[in-house]
Design brief:
Rna Polymerase Sigma Factor, Chain: A; 0% strand; 19 helices; Serine Threonine Protein Phosphatase 5, Tetratricopeptide repeat; mainly alpha
Length: 410
């Protein structure tokens, strides 16, 4: 196996677990990130010579811990401060972490990042950085803010964790209702970046999507009675089931209407449908459960035309009441266009024209362009397609929109 590919695979699998274990051990997220990166760099230098070790995660953990200890020995002030944090960490987590075992403590890190002492707006960004492995630029694009702004936010929130001595531990039962929504949002943010990449040459980043699904499965195993955890896992499975049909042989974007549904993962769909039932049973539905129900309607339909669009619109009405947002309103308008025709959908889109949170969001002008083209308003459609092309983040999306524009011109 190629050493570079081996390191990349190990990094994807072990980075979050390694970072979480080191953060718990030393009580400092910056230090944990730095020595994690140094361990990866050491692997890139050593493994081509010595070969990939049989237990690469343990090798990385041992290397990272040694780097951390060396750094603390060189910096007595830093070591003294961390010694206080270590006493607190040991009280909360009495079991030691060794180089021979690498426990899965990522959920502790997720809940630490979602601590109520931290700004709610920063939870997902920090989790994406620490556990999703996204770069600061990718996170900034996902949140539609400048890279420099996002970098300052991440530095600020990590400093808050350090100075407030927020412990790296899982929440107590009475803390769960306050902490869980931030964790769910962060996992879903990782998934959406993987399902529809914010930038780059590829439409999908399957490694991120699959990592998010795996994290959602862990959450579901630990919190099986939490129906929104179930709803989130169902939503992700039903959406990820389409991954093989979303792109053509050359990586081109394939719209839902044109996808070969025979390539959808039926096993994943069936699992998702069962989870939807559980998510919607036993009390009022939550936003993730409702979104999962919408995804299930798409999964059950033989094609786009036979989709139960009245039910889809009704579910979007529920979702708008539970979690109102311009993106939900945009999706509802598209569903109304399928139910009632393009003019009805376009009227709803025009009502969103002044929504600042849709500026820079290319699906909005792309949806308008499609409906305008269906109404025969070619000039306006062409203008909307050009706007969408300028805003699209990935090359497959831009290429698809250029083809639609070319077809309109012809």
């Amino acid at each position: 196996m190629d050493v570079g590919a081996s390191v990349a695979a190990v990094f994807r699998e072990e980075r979050g677990r390694l970072l979480a274990a080191l953060a718990r051990r030393f009580g400092d997220l910056d230090l944990a990130e730095e020595v994690t990166s140094e361990a990866i760099e050491a692997a890139l230098a050593r493994w081509p010579v010595d070969g990939v070790p049989p237990r690469p995660g343990a090798w990385l953990m041992t290397t990272a811990r040694r780097r951390a200890v060396d750094r603390l020995r060189r910096d007595r002030t830093y070591a003294a401060r961390l010694a206080v944090l270590q006493v607190e960490a040991d009280r909360a987590n009495p079991e030691p972490v060794t180089g021979d075992e690498l426990p899965d403590e990522r959920l502790q890190l997720f809940f630490t990042c979602a601590h109520p002492a931290l700004p709610a707006a920063d939870h997902a960004a920090l989790m994406l950085r620490c556990l999703g492995g996204l770069t600061t630029a990718e996170i900034a694009r996902a949140f539609l803010v400048p890279t420099a702004t996002m970098a300052k936010r991440i530095v600020r929130v990590k400093k808050k964790i350090r100075e407030a001595r927020i412990p790296f531990r899982a929440p107590e039962p009475d803390e769960l209702p306050e902490r869980l929504p931030g964790v769910l949002q962060a996992v879903y943010s990782i998934f959406t970046e993987g399902y529809a990449a914010s930038s780059g040459p590829d439409l999908q980043r399957l490694d991120l999507a699959e990592e998010a699904v795996r994290l959602a499965r862990i959450l579901h195993r630990l919190l099986p009675a939490e129906r929104e955890v179930t709803g989130l896992l169902a939503l992700m499975l039903l959406t990820h089931a389409r991954r093989n049909a979303r792109t053509g042989p050359d990586g081109d974007l394939v719209l839902l209407a044109d996808q070969d549904r025979g390539r959808w993962d039926r096993t994943m769909i069936e699992e998702g449908r069962e989870l939807v039932v559980a998510a919607l049973t036993g009390g009022p539905a939550g936003p993730y459960g409702v979104q999962a129900a919408i995804a299930a309607l798409h999964a059950e339909a033989a094609d786009l035309a036979s989709t139960d669009w009245p039910q889809v619109v009704a579910l979007y009405d529920v979702l708008l009441a539970l979690a109102p947002s311009p993106v939900v309103a945009l999706n509802r308008a598209a569903a109304v266009a399928m139910r009632d025709g393009p003019a009805a959908g376009l009227a709803l889109l025009d009502e969103l024209a002044g929504e600042p949170r849709l500026r820079g969001h290319h699906p909005y002008p792309a949806a308008r362009a499609d409906l305008l083209a269906r109404l025969g308003r070619s000039g306006e459609a062409a203008s909307a397609y050009r706007e969408a092309i300028e805003l699209a983040g990935t090359e497959p999306e831009r290429a698809h929109l250029r083809r639609r524009l070319d077809a309109l011109d012809r």
